[in-house]
Amino acid sequence: MDFCFLVLLQVAVSRLKHALLSFPKTAQGHPRLVELENGETYNGHVVYCDTWMNIHLLEVICTSKDGDRFWRMPECYIHGNTIILEFQMR
Questions:
Q1: Count of CB atoms within 10 A of residue 74's CB?
Q2: Which domains does the chain have, with CATH numbers?
Q3: Beta bridge partners of 71
Q4: How far is CA 90 from CA 21, 31, 32, 77, in A?
Q5: Cβ within 8 Å of residue 25, ≥6 positions away
Q6: Which candidate in 16, 22, 62, 80 could, as Cys together with 53 as Cys, close a disulfide (CB 3.0–4.6 Å)?
Q7: Dihedral angle sign, alpha carbons of residues 25, 29, 31, 35
Q8: pLDDT tens-digit profile, the chain (90 residues)
Q9: pLDDT value at residue 51
Q10: How far is the C-alpha of 85 from the C-alpha of 18, rounded, in Å?
């Protein structure tokens, strides 16, 4: 491999690491929709999100996989390894 390619690769990896580490900080305080591997969705405001995508939500509405049951919870904690999708709500 030539030197220029290695330098560009190093810059790209550095930017990706920065983006991944800054995402949890920018998510705090914003409403999020989180979908889990089991099909349930959780809507709430992010209190805390770490680099492993473990999320603490407040004012949560949980929707069942089939969409016919809903639960309101004051808060919940979601392990990052169960998350398949996450969207910022506006």
A1: 9
A2: 3-88 (2.30.30.100)
A3: 62
A4: 22, 7, 9, 21
A5: 49
A6: 80
A7: positive
A8: 566 666 666 666 666 554 444 455 667 788 989 999 999 999 999 998 888 889 999 999 999 999 999 999 999 999 988 888 777 666
A9: 80
A10: 20
* DSSP 8-state class, residue 37: T
What is the helix (H) or strand (E) element at residue 35, kind and residue range? strand 31-36
Contacts of 12 (CB under 8 A, 6+ apart): none
Distance CA 76, CA 84 (A): 17
Question: What is the residue type of 80?
Answer: G
| Contact call for residues 69 and 60 (beta carbons, < 8 A) | no
62 has which bridge partners?
42, 71
Q: What is the pTM of this model?
A: 0.70
User: What's 57's DSSP letter?
Assistant: E
